[in-house]
Design brief:
With 231 residues, the chain is mainly alpha-helical. The protein is built from nine helices and no strands. The protein has two domains: 60 residues, no CATH class; 118 residues, Tetratricopeptide repeat domain (Serine Threonine Protein Phosphatase 5, Tetratricopeptide repeat, Alpha Horseshoe), CATH 1.25.40.10.
Amino acid sequence: MTGTSTPPAVPPPRRHYADPSASKSQPRTDVQIWATHVGPAVFGFGVGVTWLVWTGGALPVYTPLLTAFGVWAVTQVAVRVSAAIAGRYLGLTGETIPARREYSAAQALVAQGRYEDAASAWEIAAAESGADPEPYLALARLFRDQLGRPDDAAAWFRRARRDATLPPGHDLLVSQELIELYRTKLGQPQRAIPELARICERFRGTPNAVAAERELAALRNELARERGIDG
């Protein structure tokens, strides 16, 4: 780890090991087979027999087989269409269950008060995690709260926004944490102006945007007064 204000240009080499978040497809259970194959066919056969008896034998004797096949075919189409819709709009495949990544090693180091070692562990995790924002944000907060390195904290908050995929609401949170860093820990309120303007633009019409507009106006007035005094 270095004390510079930006993360290293070349991240630590990616380690190759089994990803616990990847799960293998599971074979269908007997209940699933019954629900999608046997059950519909049996139901259709029963309907066909009922029709045959009700009409007094006026229908062909193979009517139960036809209805069994018809109900089974309709069920298969319905199951596949439902799975396709779920996969497209809900991000579900029915075959894998995504698992949240674990960062127990870095978290344990933080709990033990070994903050420098934890920072190294979080940095490696960020390099290996792809678009997961958790190690980026954890490292930024570690620099801010435990290690007293606000410049590094700001750099990792910005990198989380740039390199990771932030879930809904976290983009606003990162901007707010950067504003707080610039105004308090770093004592550079002018650096908060772009972040406040960003909130006003991206969240226009929301209470957060209204609050940011008020804070932006107050900050600009404050800086203008300071420049007037200095002049």
